[in-house]
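User: Good morning. I'm curious how S-adenosylmethionine would be positioned relative to this chain. Could you predict the structure with it bound?
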Amino acid sequence: MTGRDIVRDDFLLRIKSKPWLSINYHPEGNSIWHIPTMISKEEKLMLSWLTEFFVTGKGQIVDLGSFLGGSTVFLAHGLSNNKSKALNDIFIHCYDTFQIVLEDKHVVNYFLPKFELDYPLGGDIYPLFKKHTNTFLEYLKVCKGKIENYYPNYDKIELLFVDVMKSPSSYNHVISHFIPKLIPGKSIMIQQDYLCHTSGPWHVILMELLDDYFELITDTSINSVLYFYTREIPQELLESCIWEKISKDKKIELLERAKEKWFLVHQKEMIENQISNFKKSLHLLKYDLN
Ligand SMILES: C[S@@+](CC[C@H](N)C(=O)[O-])C[C@H]1O[C@@H](n2cnc3c(N)ncnc32)[C@H](O)[C@@H]1O
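Assistant: Good morning! Here's the predicted structure, ligand included:
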């Protein structure tokens, strides 16, 4: 083991201890706690801590699925306090359609009323995103539109927050164009939808397929799971992760395998729910009950 490995392992151990939950860590200012968001309190603390203490400037910070700016402002808050000298060309790259569609019943019927927000004109939430992130503009590069139309024009990603893989097509795009930008032995990827009852099954399946290339660091109890990128993924393997190339049987096998890795009741239930939803979507459930 080299000196560099020891430093890396010490740092990973520190992250495993979730230092963002310390009573001594309390990011505040710029109304960051008042922005309507879908992420939890622990996720906010985690994002801010990582951009303040983990990010070194070896690659970009990427916020996939910025919505109203909740994840963005915590990433930006941490970055604005980061003491590293190598951050000159480092930005938070924010991707979103910034569009709420009326068919999105969860957002329209639950989320907007909860935060006392009206359905915006034409469903356009970009003005709200700009208002919420206004004080952090110097840290942001915003890509408005479908992620499938964007190809990163930077070489490396040091911190990748994934909250946009809501369909097989966005999943395929993220694995083809964003994951290859991670830095082996350095980057962290956060799968925000992993520990959620209603998520698509691809987050869990992907992390099983790439098990030899990522080390699970920790999670935020619900939603986010943090992974350390240990070594470069061969191109052929990434290509074989394209959703349509994985057989249905393999998908179910990987979901069942992943379920065994979780020991807290609520976390296991979330994976079970994803399995059940996936089987229903394949019309397999009635088959199972026979
Ligand atoms: C759960 S929300 C993100 C929540 C946000 N991170 C927060 O802190 O509140 C998911 C976002 O992904 C965006 N999204 C979903 N599919 C997309 C796609 N194909 N391209 C771009 N954005 C997409 C949606 O517009 C939505 O704002």
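The chain has one domain: 3-195+214-229. Strands lie at 60-64, 92-96, 140-144, 157-162, 188-195, 214-219, 223-229.
Let me know if you'd like a different ligand tried.
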